[in-house]
């Protein structure tokens, strides 16, 4: 058992015990409130560049299994837990969380006051932090000075998006899935509905996408600030109105930017699997899985052809949009339900339905 510290740019220091990799790591420190779902969280590429604090106090108790990964290579910078379970118990368990973190070279810290840390993030907003190398003494003043001067990379989408296109064949509707750092759950939901999916890199042009003759375009989730991928905004501007579109999370934010709206950074974001979202058209509330630090500014939508369809019940922020003239809709949360709940899984059926309609709203052949 080796010591490890988490040092924040605010000067706060949390001393705990290292698990996983022995290396040091820097990142934006955020928190997530999911009581379960740590495997999906650690492998969600939207966390690229971030150190994730789990507010639920016992993490790792059902281990890691081969099925629940949201990506092949986890992109998180580290994990912070109150208590790490080292003797997991579950029929699907293939490894412990610690074993996975060693294998994937990800540092973790356990045994710190995660409630205190979460309060700091809630009060000050997401902060920069460093997980020290295991067993190493650190000079806090030096680390704080360095963190204050650090600007994190802005190429996270480029780090996690596929480098070349690939198919995931089916016999149904042809969907081009733009990979901004896709959670595998999105692909799974499309495959489940027999879609013929072609996954393409984030910097594919509209012309290249049209040359695949898609019935629909799915915009994935992804890390970082949506304004850091201007090429995707241009691509979307050339696609909206031509092909039905469904966007999730980063895809939703990019859709808003491409339509003339604006996005801003939330103070501490929405991360967890228990976020209530209201559908303003039906009045129905879904409990949703979320992981985002940015949000669409509702004021910026005045004068655009977008309508707010969903709002977060916790803070009233925009959670869903639809285009008033053409078949395109997006959500800020995760209907692929990884980790659950599955309340909003029906949105994938709505997308399939939309693909049976042409852009003028007429029914298409099956
Ligand atoms: N899960 C996502 O796609 C997140 C979108 C974006 N990176 C944000 O933090 O808001």
Question: What is the element layout, followed by pairings?
Answer:
Elements: E1 3-8, E2 13-20, E3 25-32, H1 38-42, E4 50-54, E5 58-59, E6 78-81, E7 83-84, H2 97-103, E8 107-110, H3 114-124, E9 127-131, H4 140-149, H5 156-160, E10 166-168, E11 174-179, H6 184-192, E12 196-201, H7 206-210, E13 216-219, H8 230-237, E14 245-248, H9 250-258, E15 263-279, E16 285-296, E17 306-312, E18 318-323, E19 328-331, H10 346-355
Parallel strand pairs: 3-4, 4-6, 5-7, 6-8, 11-12, 11-13, 13-14, 14-19
Antiparallel strand pairs: 1-2, 1-9, 2-8, 3-9, 10-12, 15-16, 15-17, 17-18, 18-19
Glutamine binds next to strand 16.
Catalytic activity: L-glutamine + H2O = L-glutamate + NH4(+); hydrogencarbonate + L-glutamine + 2 ATP + H2O = carbamoyl phosphate + L-glutamate + 2 ADP + phosphate + 2 H(+)
Protein name: Carbamoyl phosphate synthase small chain
Enzyme class: ligase
Number of strands: 19
Low-confidence stretches: none
Average pLDDT score: 96
Largest sheet: 10 strands, mixed
Helices and strands, in order, run as EEEHEEEEHEHEHHEEHEHEHEHEEEEEH
- Arrangement of strands in the largest sheet: 10-12-11-13-14-19-18-17-15-16
List the bound ligands.
Answer: glutamine
Do you know the CATH architecture of the largest domain? 3-Layer(aba) Sandwich
Using only CA atoms, what is the Rg?
A: 21 Å
- Name of the CATH first level of the largest domain: Alpha Beta
Strand content: 25-35%
Judged by helices, strands and strand pairing, the structural class is alpha/beta
Q: Count up the helices.
A: 10
What's the overall geometry? globular
Protein name: Carbamoyl phosphate synthase small chain
Family: Belongs to the CarA family.
EC number: 6.3.5.5
Domain Carbamoyl-phosphate synthase small subunit N-terminal: 2-132
């Amino acid at each position: 058992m080796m010591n490890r510290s988490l040092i924040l740019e605010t000067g706060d220091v949390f001393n705990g015990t290292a698990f996983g990799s022995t290396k040091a790591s820097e990142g934006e420190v955020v928190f997530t409130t999911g009581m379960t779902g740590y495997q999906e969280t650690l492998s969600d590429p939207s966390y690229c560049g971030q150190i994730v604090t789990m507010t639920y106090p016992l993490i790792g108790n059902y281990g890691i299994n081969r099925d629940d990964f949201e990506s092949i290579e986890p992109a998180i910078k580290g994990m912070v837990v109150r208590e790490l379970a080292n003797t997991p118990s579950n029929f699907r368990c293939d490894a412990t969380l610690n074993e996975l973190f060693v294998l994937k070279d990800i540092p973790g810290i356990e045994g710190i006051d995660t409630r205190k840390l979460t309060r700091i993030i809630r009060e000050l907003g997401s902060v920069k932090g460093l997980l020290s190398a295991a067993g190493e003494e650190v000079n806090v003043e030096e680390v704080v000075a360095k963190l204050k001067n650090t600007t994190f990379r802005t190429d996270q989408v480029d780090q996690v998006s596929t480098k070349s296109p690939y198919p995931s064949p089916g016999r149904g509707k042809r969907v081009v899935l733009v990979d901004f750092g896709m959670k595998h759950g999105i692909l799974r939901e499309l495959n489940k509905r027999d879609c013929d999916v072609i996954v393409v890199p984030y910097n594919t042009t509209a012309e290249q996408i049209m040359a695949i003759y898609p019935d629909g375009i799915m915009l994935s989730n992804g890390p970082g600030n949506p304004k850091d991928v201007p090429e995707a905004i241009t691509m979307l501007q050339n696609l909206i109105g031509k092909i039905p579109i469904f966007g999730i999370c980063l895809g939703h934010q990019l859709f808003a930017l491409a339509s003339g709206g604006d996005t801003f950074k939330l103070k501490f974001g929405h991360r967890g699997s228990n976020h209530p979202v209201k559908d303003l058209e039906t009045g129905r509330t879904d409990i949703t899985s979320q992981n985002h630090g940015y949000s669409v500014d509702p004021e910026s939508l005045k004068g655009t052809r977008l309508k707010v369809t969903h709002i977060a019940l916790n803070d009233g922020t925009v959670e869903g949009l639809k285009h008033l003239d053409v078949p395109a809709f997006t959500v800020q949360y995760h209907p692929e339900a990884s980790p659950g709940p599955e309340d909003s899984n029906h949105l994938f059926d709505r997308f399939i339905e939309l693909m049976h309609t042409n852009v003028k709203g007429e029914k298409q052949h099956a």
